[in-house]
Structure formats: C-alpha cells, structure tokens
Design a protein that fits this description.
The protein is built from 17 helices and 22 strands. It is an alpha/beta fold. It has a domain of 328 residues: Alpha-Beta Barrel (TIM Barrel).
C-alpha cells in the first residue's frame, strides 16, 4: 500500500472522508478540503482518507509514504478534448479573416490528399501530446488531433499505436480514430465548400469500428474505445446513423463536434441537409446519454442564433447529453458559451477540455471563470467551484465513470497534485484559488493513475524530454510547411506570406 501525504487534499464529501474537514459542509458541496491529510492507496483503489492523527495512523500501515509537502492533492483532471497536436491554435488563432480560408485544404489537394508526416512521425507526435497532457496534470483524456495533416482520417493503426503509448506512459484514455465523409476546402476563386468522398467516409468508419474490437482484445483498463466522428457537417447522415447504431449495440460513447460554427456548420446544415445541428443529431439517433458534444456553443440561447431559450438546453438535459466546454479555445477563437450558468441550471452535464496548446486545464478553469464574470458583469458569477467540478466530476459523469473524478474510499486511485511551494505563488488562503490565480498546469508535480505513480517531482520516469522536445520542433516545422503546400490562394514557395512573424525580423 502507498500513502500520499499533502498539505491540502480535496476529497469527496461523503462518509469517513470528511474527518478533519475545513470550510464548506457536505450539504453545500461535493468536495471538502482536508489539511495535512493522507490518502491510502491499495492496488488501484483508494483504501482510506484522513487528516491529522488519523492520517498519521493510515501512513503507519503503508509500505511507502509519498510526502508531497506544500501541495494540493485533488482528483485527477479529466480532459475530454485532450490535444495531441503540436500546432493547433499556435498557428491558427491569430489570423486575419482573409487568412482563415487559406488554412483549409485546397480543392486540388482534396482530390489527391497526402499525409504530411510518416508513420513514425505521427507516432512521435502523439507521444509528444500524451506526455504534455500528463505533465499538465491530466490523468484521463479523450484525445483530439487535427485531420488537416493526414491523408483523410485517422486510422485504426494510428490509434492502436496511440493506445500502446498511453498504456506505456500510464495515462487513461478514451480513444477512437476520427472519421469523416467530407473536408472543408477553399477553391482557387476563394469560395468555400465541402469536398465529399463518401467511399472514404465509409472506409474510415469501418476502421473506427474495427478499432473497438482491437481495444477489447487489449483488455487494458487504461484504454476504452469510443466513436469519434469529425465535425458533424462533414459526416454524412448514413455514417452518423451507422455510428448511432454501433454505439447502441456496443454501448460505447460518441464524441462529435457540433454547434461550434455559424457559417461553417449551421448555415451549411440548414442549406444542404435541412437541419439544425441538434436536429440532425436527433434524426440520426445520436441524441442520447452516450453523446459527448464538443463545444456546444451555438444553441438557441446564443445571441448569434436566437438569443433566447427555445428548448435546446432542456432537450440536451432530457437526453442526457454531455458538453465539453473549452474556455481557452472559446476565448482565443472568440466564440463564447452563452452562458455556463444557463447550462448548469438546465441540468446539462458540463465537462472541460483543453483543445489547445498547452493542454492546461488550470488555465482553462481560470479563463472560464473570467469569461463568466465578464458575461454576467457580476463577480458572484463564474464560480471557481463550478469549473473545478467540471474538470473532475463533470468529466466522470460524461464518461459514465462514477469511480473517477473524486477522492474517496473505494474510488479508483486517479490523483494529481500541484505544488504551491514556489515563492511566486504568493500567500495561500484557499489552495485552489491560489493555484488558479497564481499557477498553471505546469505546477503539477505528482500524478497517479489506477494506483500507478506516473509523474513524480514533475517528471515522467523513462521519458527523455529533451530528445522529445527536439523531435517535436522538427515535426512542427514540417507541419507548418505543409499548410503552404495546401494553400489555394497564395505563393506555395512563400511560407512567410502565410505565417508572418509578429514583428519584422532583422538581419
């Protein structure tokens, strides 16, 4: 057995875990804070939680005591848009409007797409992403990566390699290859359309179905197969309906990107398929408790849609659909959830996603709180507790995993700790407020997944970060050059035209 001791421990507000609690009562919050507390882990489960003298007694029975000092130990963070890209948002969140279309594929490229990276480079890229997630305190992730650099869709073999890497590193993943029937393209005249290849869409879906079988064969508790259709406007009704059917037959989750774009999604669906995003999802059989909706921004309550509640939130809540809220992406791309409080009051399950680099949910929590306060013009809104719960309990509910997202006796031992010892953290009153206001995910110094220590003293055993960083930089340069080769409107020899520096570079 292992005993993990920390100055501050955030535990679920039930039964014996409330011994020595400080602050809120269990009636007011799902969590309570213990000080100078110990979490006892036996195998992959939490066997005990206590503070003070009771904590000392727990530690006395352990084979190993891990003392984290002035850290806050909390449930492992769950990222349901866990980025395993290296360039997303770094290259595409600052563009001028005329540059936006140039980051699509050209129509010419879409007719004969080619992968930018080799199989080995794709494997390295995903390892880089999973390592980043762990280093930022993520213990469970539903990875996401862009298809823009691939030949069409993610493959079975790509995901199987990712599964092996995740198992080696020790991160819990909910994994499936993303598939699509069409791709957004920019034509040579500057117009924007979707280029369709339904045969490739069917083949990619078949690959995703086969991956579920491969996950079953792995029988690895860290790897769960899910279905991940791409942006809903790029997947045919046929493939979406097949996704719904397979999800029901195999009882697997589906994550789909919808209600994240106006002209790029809502207008297209209205014109080409006579449907709203939610209407389409209901029509194909996906609007149910197995659906995880990425972003969920452009619903009827949003001012750019109707600006009033016409039933979308109630429909989502009644169906049991979960939403992955990505505050940093919302802020950087300027498409804000309207407003988190409305979703929570309607009973919609909210999880969090990073969906950006760095994959930092502490930064996402802080950004979400700030955006909520600004939207409401009220310091009493955008409560920090709501976002912390979304990053833990919300993710667990979306995954259908009540054993995750909390520290309590009998729960799975997925834990993360953030150091508060740095002088730059300042004074500590409430540890999570201090972490959110003064820290980032980079302050993660310990994590455990299923009872296995995967990060200690801020490092991952067996991972050569220097070598991985250097290879990541090389791959990034190759990915950046790939954008220029697909650009329908620019000079394909001029990388600087598409990605100019912030300030002119001198000689």
């Amino acid at each position: 057995m292992k005993a993990i001791r920390a100055a501050y421990v955030i535990v679920e507000a039930e039964g014996p875990t409330v011994v020595g609690a400080v602050g809120v009562s269990p009636d007011e919050s799902p969590f309570v804070e213990l000080r100078d507390a110990v979490v006892l882990v036996d195998g992959d489960r939490i066997a005990g939680v206590a503070a003070g003298a009771a904590g000392d007694a727990l530690a006395a029975n352990a084979a190993e005591v891990i003392d984290l000092g002035e850290s806050v130990l909390m449930p492992g963070l769950i990222d349901l848009e866990g980025l395993v890209d290296i360039d997303h948002l770094l290259l595409d969140s600052w563009w001028s409007p005329e540059h936006e279309m140039r980051l699509d594929w050209s129509e010419e490229f879409a007719r004969n797409p080619q992968a930018v990276l080799t199989d080995t480079e794709r494997s390295t890229l995903r390892r880089y992403g999973l390592v980043q997630l762990l280093l930022h305190g993520i213990t469970s992730a539903m990875p996401i990566s862009t298809e823009v650099h691939g030949a069409w869709a993610e493959t079975h073999d790509d995901m199987l390699d990712t599964a092996h890497t995740a198992s080696e590193l020790g991160i819990r993943v909910f994994l499936g290859p993303s598939y699509r029937s069409g791709v957004h393209v920019t034509r040579a005249d500057g117009t924007h359309v979707i280029h369709w290849d339904e045969q490739k869409g069917r083949a990619a879906f078949a690959d995703a179905a086969r991956f579920l079988d491969s996950v079953d064969e792995l029988a690895d508790p860290l790897i769960t197969g899910v279905l991940v259709p791409c942006r809903v406007e790029t997947v045919t009704d046929e493939v979406l309906a097949a996704t719904a059917k397979l999800s029901a037959e195999r009882d697997v989750l589906v994550r789909v990107h919808a209600t994240q774009g106006l002209s790029s999604e809502i207008d297209i669906l209205r014109a080409e398929r006579d449907a709203t995003p939610l209407g389409l999802l209901e029509r194909v059989g996906l609007l149910n408790e197995r659906l995880i909706l990425a972003h969920g921004v452009y619903l009827d309550v949003h001012p750019d849609v109707h600006g009033e509640d016409r039933g979308d939130l109630a429909a989502l809540a009644a169906a049991g659909v979960s939403i992955v809220h990505c505050p940093v992406t919302n802020a950087r791309y300027a498409f804000w959830l309207e407003k988190l409080s409305q979703y929570l009051e309607a009973g919609v399950t909210i999880a969090l996603g990073s969906d950006s680099f760095p994959p930092d949910l502490i930064r996402a929590i802080d950004t979400g709180v700030q955006l909520s306060k600004a939207q409401h013009n009220d310091l009493g809104m955008g409560l920090l507790a709501e976002y912390v719960e979304a990053a833990t309990l919300g993710g667990a509910r979306a995954l259908g995993r009540p054993d995750l997202g909390r520290i309590g006796v009998g729960r799975t031992a997925d834990l993360v700790a953030f150091s508060l010892a740095d002088f730059r953290m300042g004074a500590i009153d409430d540890p999570l407020r201090t972490l959110t206001l003064s820290g980032t995910g980079r302050d993660a110094n310990f994590s455990m997944v299923g009872g296995r220590v995967v990060m200690r003293d801020g490092t991952l055993p067996g991972v050569d970060l220097g070598a991985l960083r250097a290879e990541g930089q090389r791959i990034f340069e190759k990915l950046r050059a790939g954008y220029v080769q697909r650009d329908a409107l620019g000079d394909k020899a001029n990388l600087g035209e598409l990605f100019p520096p912030l300030f002119p570079r001198g000689n």
